[in-house]
């Protein structure tokens, strides 16, 4: 180890019996399998501590060189939500009105989505995940590494944490999302990665009847099982 190596501490690792491992893996899968993207939200407020703990959970994600290149902005302010909805709908009108390639529109048709995004205002909270693309100028460092991979993993963990806590989300990407940096006054070295409306589903909420690919279709195994 070089002189610059950080002090190390013993790992806090829990070892389970095989039976416990099977139970934990299958119940976690069953729980995640119930997660669905929700596009109709109730305006009922959500406990802010729950959101904060879910953000903490997201912040435990691994990141390239431990740079933790993410910033989470939570918006519950009605006026800001209105501004974000207006700007997102403007981009989406351009997307649906010809900017998206035709095969992308064909893929979206079964989901029933369009340029109207009332959920942005209906959901009691929006979480905007920003990717810190480059270090802050004052840091003296020139580049960040594996930003997209790291922020993608943290966002996945955030969505899973919110779902486990009993909150619904939509993964929304009204691209281009530069308007989010402007409205939310984030610095130039950050770019909006995803907009997550968060809350409880509206009464009678329905979701597209989708099937997920089977394990055999999305995985390959070499060697004994
Ligand atoms: C990167 C990414 C971008 C997405 N962007 C949108 C979006 O802009 N609008 C939307 O309604 N859904 C969006 N979705 C949600 C997908 O349509 C949804 O995850 C997919 O249809 C599967 O449904 P499920 O999340 O209920 O399993 C996005 C999902 C991902 C992962």
What is the average per-residue confidence, as pLDDT, rounded to a whole number? 96
Give every kind of bound small molecule, once each. flavin mononucleotide
Structure classification? alpha+beta
Rough shape? globular
Order of helices and strands: HHEHHHEHEHEH
How many domains would you count in the coordinates? 1
Helix content: 25-40%
Q: Give a short account of the largest sheet.
A: 4 strands, antiparallel
Low-confidence stretches: none
CATH topology: NADH Oxidase
CATH architecture: 3-Layer(aba) Sandwich
Give the strand tally: 4
Name given to the CATH homologous superfamily = NADH Oxidase
Task: Tell me the name of the CATH class.
Answer: Alpha Beta
User: Roughly how many Å apart are the termini?
Assistant: 37 Å
Our Rg estimate from Cα atoms comes to 20 Å
Q: What percent of residues are in strands?
A: 5-15%
Strand arrangement across the biggest beta sheet? 1-2-4-3
Number of helices: 8
Structure characterization notes:
- The protein has eight helices and four strands; from the N terminus they run ααβαααβαβαβα.
- The chain is an alpha+beta fold and 225 residues long.
- The protein has one domain (37-203): NADH Oxidase.
- Strands 1-2-4-3 form a four-stranded antiparallel β-sheet.
- The model has no long low-confidence stretch (mean pLDDT 96).
- The structure holds flavin mononucleotide (FMN).
- The site of flavin mononucleotide has 12 residues, from loops.
In short:
By secondary structure, the protein is of the alpha+beta class. 40% of the residues lie in helices and 12% in strands. The protein has a single domain, classed as NADH Oxidase.
